Amino acid sequence: MTEHQNKDHDTEVEGAHALLPIDEHVEEVSGPDGRKVRHKGIYLLPNLFTTAALFSGFYAIVSAMDGNFTHAAVAIFIAMVLDGLDGRVARLTNTQSAFGAEYDSLSDMVAFGIAPAVVVFSWALTDLGKVGWVFAFIYVAGAALRLARFNTHIGDDDKRYFTGLPSPSGAGLVAGMVWSLSDFGVDGNDIALLVGILTALGGLLMVSNFRYYSFKDLDFKGRVPFFVILVVVLGFAVISSDPSRILWAIFVGYTISGPVMSLWRLRQRTKSASAE
Question: Could you list the residue ranges that cross the membrane (predicted)?
Answer without folding.
Answer: 42-62, 68-85, 106-125, 131-148, 160-179, 191-212, 224-240, 246-264
